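Following up on my earlier thread - several people asked me to post the actual chain instead of describing it. Fair enough. Here it is, all 117 residues.
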Amino acid sequence: MRTLLAMIAVGMLAAACPPPATGPGPAPGPGPGPGPAEIDAAATAPPPAAKPCASPADCAQGEMCQGPEGCEAQWTCGPARPCTRDLASYCGCDGQTFEGSGSCPPRPYAHKGACAP
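Reply from S.P.:
Thanks for posting it. Predicted structure:
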């Protein structure tokens, strides 16, 4: 009987002890990446609004003020591009003639060519 009681006591002690430590496990990762909804939202997000400008001075370095002929359209800053080195006359939206590159006018203009006197 003593043997039986000793075996029960040893079994109870073994059951009460925590399991041996195995060392630190792998560090948790950053988690799952973006789900399909986040990917779709990023793909369909509108581009940032372009900054309006009236001259190259309004734009950051590496950008130029650009837009179509005519005073009704808003010009915006955009990536600089190569321009020709010729001089062309433009009639500015203020009624004053100015000169600039034939392929990259420096500011909004009413039409190509000098303003009427």
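The chain has a mean pLDDT of 79. That should answer part of your original question.
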